[in-house]
Write a structure and sequence with these properties.
Layout: H1 10-16, H2 23-32, E1 46-47, E2 50-51, E3 58-63, E4 66-72, E5 77-80, H3 108-114, E6 122-126, E7 142-144, E8 146-152, H4 154-157, E9 166-170, E10 184-185, E11 195-200, E12 217-223, E13 237-240, E14 246-247, E15 255-258, E16 265-272, H5 276-285, E17 294-298, H6 303-310, H7 321-327, E18 331-335
Parallel strand pairs: 10-16
Antiparallel strand pairs: 1-14, 2-12, 3-4, 3-6, 4-5, 5-9, 6-7, 8-9, 8-18, 11-12, 11-15, 13-17, 15-16, 16-17
Keywords: Disulfide bond, Signal
Domain Peptidase S1: 46-311
Signal peptide: 1-17
């Protein structure tokens, strides 16, 4: 019955509940993901980016005063970063500089206590170019709550170093007549393209230096770093060059996208970058103050994990040692109350 939910009213969809996709729903997603809807009119907080048209897969997530981005990958599931759904105050300082050689496995009680589970704190904004706090009256958008979180508990087990992937479930399915469209999840056998598109509309204290934060922006060509990743970066990341443009706080969780055969496909999840002040200094002074690349979770390694968690399975993945390793990461499922 859920397989026809996309075409039914929001009320009927809510009657049948959410959860992972059925095989029929997944088949529909694989046929239609990333394709633009016909005759649909498409109506900065990435530094150095351009104003974006409406990106139908882009989702802004807000939990009280914290902001992240995400990518719609099914009618009810949004791909984002673990650090967007967990309280990271327990993470080791400068944890990205090195991982734990002996991971500490947290108990379910500890994980639940670290998860953002208060429903009235969550808000997801889809189908819009505005930032949630600055949308004008009548500006097109869909606002929904979050009902469930699928997180990767190994994010904490390895000291908040790698494994930075999570999925949030919306309280209802996005309907066919609405603007948002799920993006495709990249198969494991696809190589990482040289150029990608990043999006975001982050909110931070640099607003007075960049007044165009209130709208969705994008970097049309995010060049992969010509140098190797930092030697202590985890293996499950894509490195990007952020000398003159890059993502900042509030852009976390956003997808790195490309369009094979004209289909919007998510290949990475924004995890961490260099200091925003340094990016701005680089822009203003044309200097190169920090050559540390930005890092995004490589979705190719987690396609098996995504399939296991929510039933979005592209069926074209090829297992390697790394994809099998990351695919075995535990899925921490918690209801938002």
């Amino acid at each position: 019955m859920r397989s026809i939910c996309w075409f039914l009213s929001a009320f009927l969809c809510s009657v049948f509940g959410g959860g992972p996709l059925t095989p029929e729903e997944n088949s529909w997603v694989q046929r239609t993901c990333g394709l633009p809807k016909p005759s649909r009119r498409l109506v900065k907080r990435i530094i150095g980016g351009d104003f974006a048209p409406l990106l139908p897969y882009a989702v802004q997530l807000k939990y009280y005063g914290s902001y992240c981005e995400g990518t719609l990958i099914s009618p009810r599931h949004v791909l984002t970063a673990s650090h967007c759904v967990y309280n990271t105050t327990t993470c080791p300082e400068n944890s990205f500089k090195g991982s734990l050689s002996h991971p500490r496995v947290l108990s379910l009680t500890e994980l639940n206590q670290l998860t953002f589970t208060e429903s009235y704190g969550w808000k997801a904004t889809l189908g819009s170019t505005c930032s949630v706090d600055y949308c004008e009256y009548g500006q097109p958008r869909t606002s929904l709550k979050i009902s469930r979180i699928y997180a990767n508990s190994n994010y904490f087990s390895y000291g908040c170093h790698g494994h930075d992937i999570a999925i949030v479930e919306l309280t209802r399915d996005i309907q066919e007549y609405e603007i948002p469209i799920p993006a495709c999840v990249t198969p494991t056998q696809h190589g990482t393209p040289d150029h990608l598109v990043a999006f975001g509309r982050g909110k931070n204290s640099l607003a007075e230096r960049n007044h165009d934060l209130r709208r969705l922006v994008y970097l049309q060509w995010v060049k992969l770093s010509p140098v190797k990743c930092h030697p202590k970066y985890p293996k499950d990341v894509i490195c990007t060059d952020e000398i003159y443009r890059g993502s900042c706080r509030g852009d976390s969780g956003a997808g790195l996208m490309h369009r094979p055969q004209g289909r919007s496909t998510v290949v990475g999840i924004t995890s961490f970058g260099q200091n925003c002040e340094l990016v701005l200094e680089n822009i203003e002074l044309r200097s190169r103050l920090n050559r540390s690349p930005g890092a995004s979770t490589d979705v190719r390694f987690y396609s098996e994990w995504i399939c296991k968690a929510i039933g979005v399975c592209n069926g074209n993945s090829q297992n390697t040692d790394l994809t099998h390793y990351y695919g075995q990461d535990p899925v921490h499922v918690v209801d938002v109350l």
